[in-house]
Amino acid sequence: MESTFLQWLAEPGLTHYLMVSAILFSLGLLAVISRKNVIMVLMGVELILNSANLNFIAFSRFTELALDGQMIALFVIIIAAAEAAVALAIVLNIYNRFKTINLNEISLMKG
Amino acid sequence: MLIQLSLIILLAPMLGFLVLIFAGKKLPRNGDWFATGLITLSFALSLYLLITKLTLHHGEAITGTMTWVVLGNAAEAGSLTVPFGIMIDNLAAVMLVVVTLISMLVHFFSVGYMHGDVRYSRYYAYLGLFSFSMLGIVLTDNLLMMYIFWELVGISSYLLIGHWYEKKSASNAANKAFIVNRIGDAGMFIGIMILFASFSTFAFGAIFDTVAAGNLPFNSTAWLTAAGVLIFCGAVGKSAQFPLHVWLPDAMEGPTPISALIHAATMVAAGVYLVARVFPILTADALLIIAYIGAITALIAATIAITQFDIKKVLAYSTISQLGYMIMGLGVGAYTAGFMHLVTHASFKAGLFLGAGSVIYAMHNALHKKNDHHTDAQDIRNMGGLKSRMPVTYWTFLIFTLAISGIPLTSGFLSKDEILAGTLAFGTLSGHWLLPIIGFAVAGLTAFYMFRLLILTFHGKHAGTTSLDDVVESPKVMTIPLMVLGALSLFVFYSFNPFGASSGWFFAAIERPASVVPALMQPATSAVFHDAVSSMHTLAMVLSILIAAAGVLFALAVYQWNKVSADRMASSLGFMYRGSLNKWYFDEMYGSVFVNGTIGITKILRWFDENIVDGAVNGAATVTSRISVVSRWFDNTVVDGLVNLSARLTEMTGTLLGKIQTGKVQTYFIYIVFSFIVLFFLFI
Amino acid sequence: MELQLFGIGILTWIVFIPIVGVIIVLLLPDEKRNAIRSVAAAVTGIQVILAGIIFKYFDRSMLGINDASSFQFLEQYKWITVEAVPWVGKIEITYFLGIDGLSVLMVILTALISFIGVISSWNIGKMVKGYFALYLLLVTGMMGVFVSLDFFLFFIFWEVMLLPMYFLIGIWGGPRREYAAIKFFLYTFVGSILMLLVMLALYFSVAYTNTATGETIHTFNILHMMNPANYVDGSILAGVDTTWRYVAWMALFINFAIKIPLFPFHTWLPDAHVEAPTPISVILAGVLLKLGTYGLLRISFPIFPDGTIYFMYFMATLAMISIIYGAFCAMAQDDFKKLIAYSSVSHMGIVVLGIAALNTQGMVGGVLQMFNHGIITAVLFLVVGVIYDRTKKRGVNDFGGIANVMPRYTGVAIIGMFAALGLPGLNGFVSELFSFLGAFSSFRWITIISVTGIIITAAYILWTIQRVFLGKSPDEYLALPDLTAREMVAFVPLIILIILLGVYPAPAIELMNTSLSHLVELITNGGN
């Protein structure tokens, strides 16, 4: 049993990558949901995006999709960079306006 | 030729009216010469026309017509035209001369009497209008024109009675005259409508022919009688017959020459002329009514005249009484006699009024000189002893008084005698003996009150407070008309036999027209009636002379010789005397019943209109506004309430749902994730 | 007969030239009051000239009434046409103008009274521009009603008239003007609604077949409505002597009776007259009241001959009540204007009595009485206006002795009043005479009772003359000026007409007798 687990560990396949990706996704989600700092939330988003990238590449590597996955992953990285830039600009504006980047305190849309 | 002549006679006074009303004040002497000249022309032409008519065209009627309006195609009658026409028969020719003669004399007389009046030219203008209208009545050949001129004389009478309209009494009298006449005229109008509705024509000749051919209005003799009586209503008004006689005494508010012309000689006689004109269609019943109306009028007026003190009022009541005589004469069938009395009465009654005018003029001037503005210049109690101061007026007045009293050798005797003979004849034929009895009684009364007037005015001593030294005879322009009329009141102008008119030219010229009504409804024919008159004539003459003489003697006994005291007589006949003095209370009765009744009705109707009819309208408005209040409440609470309720519900939901909107991005994100998970499990 | 100016028919000119005036008046600045007044006078003056032309070229022998080919100065253009609607067929509203013997006198009357109204409006100083704009609009409405032969058009003009009148009374009137204006408006508006309903019912019932195309066309053409053959089988107003036809007749009658006004629909009149300024009273009494009787003759009588015959006694009875009742009420008034207003009720009753007789004499008398009454009451209201301008008083008892102070004025006033009294030689007599003569042939007792009305009329008119003109003049009135030249311009034409038509009415009667005889035939034959 142990040998099979270690063996499974030693022979990395698709499942391993997906596992890592799932863990990464969960961590990202957790960060997005629970962190109060906007920067941290953004970092969580980055994690989620990277977990997706990992999935793309893994599926691309282990199926007959050739290099499609890598291409899309590159795309995502570029978009993420742009997104981060825009998001940070928004955060800067939020900070200028509210003097805080604590999400709990930014609740103007409260019903 | 004669038609054109008659048109000139008719239109000359109208020309005078038009010129004087617009330019009267700019003419020299305010244009009196112009009006007088025109009426003199009319008179001259009328006289020529009468002579020509009687000598050259004796039996025929000369007619001429023109179309006035065409009314279009009527259902039964075809093309309906209304013509205007002139008809000159002997009746009209004689009447023309009477009207123009009296009118001319009054024009002359007025030059003196109205001298210096504020509205001198207006006065002559209205005289012209009156003469025109009166001549129109005389000349017309149809009922419509008759009615038109009938109203026009009414209005000229109104204008002249109200000549001194600053006086309230004058304008009241004018109104009364017109309105009372209107009542009669409305009746006449209905009568005309009955005839027109049935025969589609207004012309006398055509109506007579149609009736003679056996057509009756609405196929009933009752309607024919009604038509006759209703047309006679016009005469009742204009000729001041009972019960519409009340306006004439009041009409004495007008200038005295007007009273002479309009309210004694001509206009009031128009009623008699009208009855003479429509005589052929009057049924026996209608004639009987006419005769009784005339008799009652004659009696009532004569009994009132006895006690009056105003010189003009006495003459006014005597006029009413004499008109009653004429009407009675026509009613009993004494057609020629009735009309002849109209002619003779015109001259002597015009003379009496002008004489009275002369007296009033003299009295007025004399009182004015003495600065006495309180003494009534018309009250005979303030006169007396004027005989020597005004000889011409006195002697002419005496002639007129003799004539009206029916003393032989005067014109009045001739005509009155014939009427009385006619009533006696009617009594023998029909048994209505009341008519001759009233006739003779009135003859006696007339002689009495006329001599009373003469004696109190001219004889004896002056009784008033202000001395009458300044009374002088009136100027020539006033006395000459009196002399002319005095001469015309003698018998020779009518018949060369002083005791019987039937042989004179007048009876030859004016013959009673044959009745056209169905035989059953006819009065006694001319021939039958004539025989009865012949047999009664001597009796009538003797009786009338005796009764007149008795009346005269009694008057002399009371007022000249003072054998009988008038005051004691009055007190012994207390009730009768008061009744007579107060004109049998007709004015009071009409005033309280009709005038106040009408005013009462008007007030009630005004109240009804403002409160009930308009009240209903305003009530509808109020009800509408009340309804609107209710509907406003309903709208505000119920309808609007529902709307508000839905709004409030929406709002509440919103508030409720707003609670989950925390404004925290992460909360929303949790919702998304949660929802995603839920959906994931639901659909997969 | 056709007359055209610049390719536009004379009737269009006479109807719409006041609209041109309205535009010019609105373009002028407020301060140019005299220019505004002159424009109004010029425009209405042109109307009088056009009316004169119409009078001259009008063919007296043509029938009119229900026969399009014998109408004169005819103009007919397609206006609103809706092609083939399912189950209704084609809808047609035409611009259809024409006059016949019935309307020609009314057109002349309207032109004349409008002109005289402008002359007597000269001293109105409040909002001159608005006043004359509304006034001219009113004139268009009135003229339009008299010349339209299409019910839709008729209705539109009828309503066009209503609103300016409302404002003219409501703004330029006396102290209680709002009350009077609203009363006038509501009263007439109720009538209008009834007329609208009947109009629609007629519209759905009447359809004619175009001979060329074979289409069935629904129409508002009044002449088509007169032809019993045009009624669609089974429609609401089809048939003869049906309940619905009586109801429709009655609805129309109420509308027109309000305008006439007949007892008991008359109470708006005294209020409106008392409050309206003088020229508006003149228009109101001179023309507007005639619209009621004109409507009866143009619409009710020929379209519903069965109802007309059925209700003729009803009409005559109301007319009789109006004659007597109006006269009595007039007698009870102290206000000069109210007195004349009630006398109008009485005199318009004579019109209705005459036309209800349904015979030639009565019809001619009635229509002539419409014209004459227009002239006479115009004079009477002007008379009141003159004295009111000078003294600011209107009570009959406030005056006395005016005859000595203002002789010319008195002459004019007395002629007017005598004409109202029905004195022969003046026009009122002729028309009353023929109205009564005609009525007597149809209703004996009603007419006999009505004739007593002329006695009461004489009484209240003479009483008024006595109180206002006769007697001694109070000191305060001794300095009143007599009529000015401008006032004479307003009075003289009317007085001349009063006398002329009184002495020789044939020129007026000739205009209408052919048409009216035809109308009588049409009704008595039951529309065929």
Can you put this structure into words, describing what you see?
The complex is a heterotrimer of chains A (111), B (684) and C (528). Chain A has one domain (2-105): Helix Hairpins (Orthogonal Bundle), CATH 1.10.287.3510. With 111 residues, chain A is an all-alpha fold. Chain A has helices at 2-10, 14-34, 38-62, 68-98. The mean pLDDT of chain A is 85. Chain A is 77% helix and 0% strand. The termini of chain A are far apart. Chain A is elongated and about 55 Å long. With 684 residues, chain B is mainly alpha-helical. Helices cover 72% and strands 4% of the residues of chain B. Chain B has 24 helices and 2 strands. In chain B, a hairpin with a 3-residue loop joins β1 (62-74) and β2. In chain B, α13 (311-332) packs across α16 (411-430), α16 (411-430) packs antiparallel against α17 (434-458) and α17 (434-458) runs parallel beside α20 (526-560). Chain C has a domain at 311-528. Chain C has a 4-stranded mixed sheet. In chain C, β3 (72-85) and β4 (89-99) form a beta hairpin. The model of chain C has no long low-confidence stretch (mean pLDDT 88). At the B-C interface, β1, α5, α6 and α23 of B face α6, α12, α14, α17 and α18 of C.
Layout of helices and strands:
The complex is a heterotrimer of chains A (111), B (684) and C (528).
Chain A lengths: L1 H9 L3 H21 L3 H25 L5 H31 L13
Chain B lengths: L1 H22 L8 H25 L5 E13 L3 E11 L1 H24 L6 H20 L3 H19 L6 H32 L4 H9 L8 H18 L8 H4 L5 H10 L4 H9 L5 H22 L5 H22 L2 H35 L21 H15 L5 H20 L3 H25 L17 H13 L16 H5 L16 H35 L5 H7 L1 H8 L4 H73 L6 H19 L1
Antiparallel strand pairs in B: 1-2
Helix pairs in contact in B: 1-2, 1-4, 2-3, 2-4, 3-4, 3-10, 3-14, 3-18, 4-5, 5-6, 6-8, 8-11, 8-12, 10-14, 11-13, 12-13, 12-17, 13-14, 13-16, 13-17, 14-15, 14-16, 14-18, 15-17, 15-18, 16-17, 16-20, 17-20, 21-22
Chain C lengths: L3 E2 L2 E2 H18 L5 H25 L14 E14 L3 E11 L1 H20 L7 H20 L3 H22 L4 H29 L1 E3 L6 E4 L2 H4 L17 H17 L8 H8 L2 H26 L1 H6 L1 H20 L4 H21 L3 H32 L10 H4 L1 H15 L5 H16 L1 H26 L15 H19 L2 H19 L4
